Amino acid sequence: MTDLNSVAIIAIVTMILWILVFSFKLYINTKANLFRNQHEGLKARIYTANTKLYLIKILCFLISLTLAFYSLFRIKSTEVESIKEFESADILFVVDVSLSMNAIDVNPSRLKRFKDLALRILPSLKGNRIGIVVFAGQSFSFCPLTTDISAVSDYIQALGVEMVGSKGTDLKLALERVNKIRKKNNPISSQITIVVSDGEDHENQSLPPIDGEVIVWGIGTEEGGFIEYRDPGTGRGGFVTMDAGISNSPTSPNLVVSKMNPERLRSIATQNGGNFYNVSFTADGVYAFLDIVETVKKKKIQTIERFKKEDGAHPFIILAFVFLFLERTIGLFLQKIPKEIYKITLLLFILSVSNLEAWELDPGGNSIERGAKSYQQKNYTNSKKEFEKAKEYIQDDPRVLYNESAAAYQSGEYKEAIGISEKILTHPKTNDELKAKTNFNLGNIYSRLGDKKNALKAYSKTLEIDPDHLSAKKNIEHLTKKKGSDQNQKPRSDGSNQNHPQTEKNQNKKDEKSDAERILDPFSQDSILKNKKGGFSDNEKFW
Q1: Are 460 and 516 in contact (CB under 8 A)?
Q2: How far is 18 from 285, CA to CA, in rounded Å?
Q3: Helices 4-38 and 51-72 meet at what angle, rounded to 10?
Q4: Could you say which residues of the chain have pLDDT below 70?
Q5: Which of 259, 155, 169 is nearest to 207 (CA)?
Q6: Backbone angles phi, psi at 122, to 5 degrees
Q7: C-beta separation of 295 from 57 below 8 A
Q8: Which residues, at least 6 apart from 148, have a Cβ–Cβ distance to it below 8 Å?
Q9: Nearest to 243 by CA among 528, 492, 485, 450
Q10: Which residues pair with 257 in a beta bridge?
């Protein structure tokens, strides 16, 4: 940021130089007038300006310049508070992300059916606080209670059956977590809980009661369906087998058939005074939920938004333009110009003044400023539009593309964000710092899409450029820690010495692998479901 003392020095030096220049020009003009008056025959041949008008012209220019510099020191940054009041209910989605939610008896799958329903109704839930708790063999709070609909949309799109390391289904843990969340937050009169599950493997669980309104959404069929599993990165996979393997054929004899248990789900709803709905093929449960949201008693909530407002320079800038215009106008009068020119100039001035409020000195910079402000206020759609508008004025700058990519990512437009990020990486003006940031953002996007392979590649490229990038290291650790425990569990061979050369050969190959390849090993097609079964925290049914 430019030091104000340096600006002051530049302003003073500039003013002194202009004063010297104008003093010299005024002196020359005065001497020329005296010479004309002394020689009557030269008056028609020598043109000089009126000394008084010329002096006024110089003063207008100097005043305009002074006001322009002075405005830089009058900018004040003030923090403004905006209070918004609205009625809100606490809505918690308790979502089953066990492997059985990938069953294909509901098209395209049970979990995707829920995601489609949830995304469709999000606009109707605006103003309410929404959170998501996911569960399989374990449970955790995936999306904290928030009124930011766009953020909730991102979380819903990121739901997947790989989210919880412990397999099986334990609804009890999820409901206990719901009750903890309710206690931590200030109790309000409207609490709505939506349990989303296929009801499988809940039979032997003693479930805690839930406060407030309870709705249970069942997804699946009683006839059941095969569980399809595909690697998010490669798209390869097949149908899950009873021995935790993968089969490409739907006719294999040992395939897992997951069946919805409507009786168990209905009993969960009855236990909590709620209602059960099968939303596999109809949306009756969705409409019932929206009716409850509309009719339930809500509490008024106030939110305070704080933002910085920079003001104070506008009056001086406007006055500077006025004096500059006067200086230009006087300059026209001092020249031998036809009178029609003055009329045209006056007409243009009147037309321009009528639209003066639409003028922008730096439209590109203003668009970036508005985009950054919208981004901070989490209005990502408007932020993206402003950054796109900035590209019209600031071309060939990868930093503008980076801002646009970040806004597209936050808006949930992942494919577009990936495309923009790839343009940044291939841009000739992109420096190493921006490449590291862009690769890191790409890793986040691929993680949201469930594409672990490409996510790890992107994070690895970030570390190649910036080895001290702590967030990239943590994300790689988060993505790989689930698989790390089983990588070295192969029994040690005590066979003959002829096996040793092969062992050394394999070890050398392993050493030759790059860091990215080592990171990607746990996600190879051979190990899709190797650790899906077993472990002290897993249920008997790993799906």
Answers
A1: yes
A2: 77
A3: 180
A4: 1-2, 43-44, 80-86, 186-189, 201-204, 232-235, 297-307, 309-310, 333-343, 345-346, 349, 351-364, 481-543
A5: 169
A6: -55, -45
A7: no
A8: 378
A9: 528
A10: 226
Structure tokens at 118: 């949830």
In which order are the strands placed within the sheet that holds 228-230? 228-230, 237-240, 246-247
179 contacts 208 by C-beta, under 8 angstroms:
yes
Query: Would residue 212 be called left, alpha or beta, if left means φ above 0 and alpha means ψ between -120 and 50 degrees?
Result: left
Alpha-carbon span 304 to 377, nearest angstrom: 12
In the structure encoding, which two tokens stand for residue 349, read together?
A: 């001035």
Displacement of CA 154 from its chain's centroid (Å): 9
Q: Give me the pLDDT at residue 530, please.
A: 41
- The span from the first CA to the last CA of the chain, in angstroms, equals 57
C-beta neighbour count of 479 within 10 angstroms: 22
Q: Can you give 31-69 as a three-state secondary structure string?
A: HHHHHHHHCHHHCCCCCCCCHHHHHHHHHHHHHHHHHHH
Token pair for residue 427? 């841009």
* C-alpha to C-alpha distance for 534 and 540, rounded to whole angstroms: 8
Per the CB < 8 A criterion, the answer to whether 333 and 320 are in contact is no
Which residues pair with residue 197 across a beta bridge? 218
pLDDT of 524 reads 36
d(CA 442, CA 451): 11
Which amino acid appears at position 261 of this protein? Answer: N
Look at residue 98 and give its three-state secondary structure: coil
What is the per-residue DSSP string for 498-532? Answer: GGHHHHHHHHHHHHHS-HHHHHHGGGSGGGTTTTS
Distances (CA, A) of 531 to 248, 340, 384, 483, 488: 19, 88, 42, 8, 13
Contact status, residue 135 vs residue 396, Cβ threshold 8 Å: no
CA atoms within 13 A on the CB side of 90: 21
Q: What is the DSSP letter of 233?
A: T
Q: Taking the CA of residue 308 as centre, how many other CA atoms within 13 Å lie in the half-sphere pointing to its CB?
A: 8
Its pTM surpasses 0.70: no
* Distances in whole angstroms, Cα of residue 385 to Cα of each of 68, 164, 390, 437, 518: 31, 36, 9, 21, 40
Tokens representing residue 87 in the block: 């009625």
- In whole angstroms, give the CA distance from residue 294 to residue 176: 27
Residues forming beta bridges with residue 195, ordered by sequence position = 94, 216
- Residues 332, 341 contacting (CB under 8 angstroms): yes
CA separation for the pair 379, 267 (Å, rounded): 42
Q: Is the alpha carbon torsion for 336, 341, 347, 353 positive or negative? A: negative
